[in-house]
């Protein structure tokens, strides 16, 4: 295998689009910050080391493959209970390794560059569309609780260095702007005349959000958007390589700097903002150069592309729309949407889950009156949880905490008290409950913003 690494690397003369994308993927993986990484310095060190390999020589594509393996190892067992961008990076990493193994076993699929470009665009458009589609609900458009409030207040407060509060009119503006950006704007990627400007506007959207705590989303978005507009057949210029390296260096600074912020006088609440500024400097320098020099090419579409491209969009649709048939409503592009999917009080404008639900997992639920654990009660006291989700969590708490967890709850109309929920019948679970990932349920409306 290592000989194959060397043979492929030796055949690479000019840096082409594929290697540029692999380098951007490596940066997105390292920027994909999670507590797991920051609590494990060796993992963080390995990720940064192999990103540095890419920085010193972007032709060392195998460095990205190694970081893909690290990401897969960290997150495949946690899936689907990971961030949406983490899920995207996980499946991209699995795809990259699958293509490598096909190459290793000398299976030539003869994948055309134009098809790869179409794949990037179809996947990107589908993802954006559904993130907006789930927001078409009454509570997202309720200016008192809309998810746009907290996100934009955090971002604008950081930029202006003041405590900024959104008015109803500003909230309404951000609500409709978000729907347009996510549901409508991405379709501009389909036409070569609007592709470049669409990608630039979407990237600016992420640039803005990165100032709060979404720099990881932005790094993943940059990878997808460059994949939509890049000419895979064209040599990457030395100047582009130079700005690529600057961008990746700022990722290293952003990640390592975040680890050092506790040793400064900066307030903890501003850590993500400081990281976002650092990341955005590198992003701006690279994007300004790249979009200034690049132009969108008109690609040749072939009928044989229709089925695989439709299959990609269909699989993403199945994954994200499962929420409306009762198979989980979190971790599948429903983030920051104020979405409610219970039969008794669903709130989507277009889908009535009273009619679409095929499974009643969400309706078989537990009302948590009180859990006596400081780390747990602030998240779940006074909320309802589907029984499958509650059983999964009780098993998780049993492994995480060594002390008893007293709990009072109501299940199937009966009030019950357990001196230690870890020794209750609710520890009985099934392996597939992990994949029925549900949000907690409020006992009153309107529905507050939750991831």
TrEMBL record:
User: Which residues, by range, are in coiled-coil regions?
Assistant: none
Keyword Transferase recorded: no
Keywords recorded for this protein, A-Z? Membrane, Transmembrane, Transmembrane helix
Q: Which residues cross the membrane?
A: 12-31, 37-56, 61-79, 85-103, 115-133, 173-190, 197-230, 242-261, 273-291, 306-325
Domain of life from the UniProt record: Bacteria
Question: Could you tell me what this protein is called?
Answer: HTTM domain-containing protein
Organism whose genome encodes this protein:
Flavobacterium solisilvae
């Amino acid at each position: 295998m290592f000989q194959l690494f060397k043979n492929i690397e030796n055949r690479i003369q000019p840096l082409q689009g594929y290697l540029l994308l692999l380098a951007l993927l490596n940066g997105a993986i390292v920027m994909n910050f999670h507590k797991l990484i920051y609590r494990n310095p060796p993992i963080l060190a390995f990720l940064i080391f192999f990103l540095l390999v890419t920085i010193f020589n972007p032709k060392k594509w195998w460095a990205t493959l190694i970081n893909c393996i690290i990401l897969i190892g960290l997150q495949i067992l946690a899936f689907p209970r990971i961030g949406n961008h983490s899920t995207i990076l996980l499946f991209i990493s699995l795809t990259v390794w699958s293509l490598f193994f096909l190459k290793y076993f000398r299976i030539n699929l003869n994948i055309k560059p134009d098809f790869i470009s179409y794949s990037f665009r179809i996947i990107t458009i589908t993802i954006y569309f559904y993130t907006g589609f789930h927001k078409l609900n009454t509570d997202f458009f309720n200016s008192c609780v809309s998810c746009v409030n907290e996100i934009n207040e955090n971002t604008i407060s950081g930029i202006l260095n003041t405590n900024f509060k959104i008015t109803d009119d500003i909230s309404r503006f951000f609500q409709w702007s978000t729907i347009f950006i996510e549901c409508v704007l991405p379709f501009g990627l389909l036409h070569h005349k609007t592709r470049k400007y669409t990608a630039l506007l979407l990237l600016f959207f992420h640039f803005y959000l990165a100032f709060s705590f979404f720099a990881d989303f932005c790094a993943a978005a940059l990878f997808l958007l460059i994949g939509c507009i890049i000419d895979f057949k064209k040599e990457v210029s030395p100047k582009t390589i130079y700005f690529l390296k600057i961008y990746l260096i700022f990722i290293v600074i952003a990640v390592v700097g975040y680890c050092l912020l506790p040793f400064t006088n900066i307030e903890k609440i501003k850590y993500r903002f400081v990281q976002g500024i650092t990341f955005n400097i590198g992003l701006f320098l690279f994007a300004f150069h790249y979009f200034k020099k690049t132009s969108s090419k008109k690609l040749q579409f072939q009928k044989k592309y229709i089925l695989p491209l439709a299959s990609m969009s269909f699989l993403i649709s199945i994954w994200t729309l499962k929420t409306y048939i009762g198979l989980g409503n979190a971790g599948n592009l429903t983030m920051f949407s104020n979405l409610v999917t219970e039969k008794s009080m669903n709130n989507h404008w277009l889908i009535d889950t009273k009619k679409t639900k095929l499974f009643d997992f969400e309706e078989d639920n537990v009302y948590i009156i009180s859990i006596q654990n400081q780390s747990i009660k602030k998240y779940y006291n006074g909320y309802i949880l589907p029984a499958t989700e509650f059983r999964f969590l009780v098993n998780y708490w049993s492994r995480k905490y060594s002390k008893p967890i007293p709990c009072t709850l109501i299940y199937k109309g009966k009030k019950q008290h357990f001196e230690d929920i870890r020794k209750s019948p609710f520890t009985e679970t099934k392996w597939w409950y992990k994949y029925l990932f549900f949000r907690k349920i409020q006992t009153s409306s309107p529905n507050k913003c939750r991831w």
